[in-house]
Amino acid sequence: MSSHAPTENLTRRSFRRAPGDERRQDLIRATLDILAERGLHAATVREIAVRAGVTNGLIRHYFETKDHMIHEAYRSTMDEMTVLAREAGNSAAQHPRERLRRFVAANFSPQVLDLRKLTLWASFISMIHIDPEMAAIHREAYLEFRSEVEQLVADVFAEAGMASGEAECRSAAIKINAVIDGLWLEGAMAPGLFGEGDLIAMGMESVEAILGLSLSDDAGGDE
Q: In this model, does residue 222 exceed pLDDT 50?
């Protein structure tokens, strides 16, 4: 879709009444749709109202300003990506190494590794250095994600009988986060350059190098 498509060419959703939380999420989804399709400049209150099938006034009821709506759209995007990885890491797997493997792999799943999320990320990231609220949301999301990794790393070290302090776990988590970010960015930008499972394999290899231990099934701790 052209980034300069007129408002009247957008499909207007049928108006329907919805509970407050559901309506708010509808507006966030409409904001994300426009951002992904047409960019940040196109995400005006009027365009979002058309896409969501509501009035401008109803949007003002849920969001004080357009910036507030953009902030919440960014928060929603980051939360979704973190939750997908967290749920994988908190799976029914018995051993910490398996939970960490699943956490890393989840970051390269089709739900995360797609062009839409890359497009949204690029739109949002351009605002971080000029919008203090966006910077605060970014910092909060980063620390939440890093905390998930730190706990998984601590559990893996404990299972392996490796002495580790808070600083060591944090350092490993920062490095692992950087590996995931870098591979995700490469994979989302040029998916055709990688074979199925390549990014996961490279991610696992890098994490093992950072931790100094194997995460494979035949490593110690499965008795």
A: no
Taking the C-alpha atoms of residue 164 and residue 53, their distance in angstroms, rounded to an integer, is 54
Contacts 24+ apart (CB under 8 A), 106-109: 107/81, 107/180, 107/184, 107/203, 108/183, 108/184, 108/187, 108/199, 108/200, 108/203, 109/84
Distance CA 177, CA 222 (A): 26
Would the pLDDT of 25 be above 60? yes
3-state secondary structure of 140: helix
Closest to 43 (Cα-Cα) out of 19, 68, 20, 77? 68
Residue ranges matching CATH 1.10.357.10 in the chain: 67-211
Task: Quote the tokens at residue 139.
Answer: 């910092």
Q: Write down the pLDDT at residue 92.
A: 67
CA dihedral for 197, 202, 203, 205, sign (positive or negative)? positive
- Calpha distance 120→135 (Å, rounded): 15
- What pLDDT shows up at residue 164? 83
Average pLDDT rounded to a whole number, residues 161-187: 94
Taking 50 as the threshold, does the pLDDT of residue 24 lie above it? yes
State which fold the 7-63 domain adopts.
Arc Repressor Mutant, subunit A (1.10.10)
User: What distance in Å separates the CA atoms of residue 140 and residue 117, rounded to the nearest whole number?
Assistant: 19
CB 145 within 8 A of CB 72: no
**pLDDT of the residue at 3:** 39
Tell me how far apart the alpha carbons of residues 59 and 17 are, in angstroms, rounded to a whole number.
13
Please state which architecture CATH assigns to domain 67-211.
Answer: Orthogonal Bundle (1.10)
Q: For residue 214, is it left (φ>0), alpha (ψ between -120 and 50) or beta?
A: beta
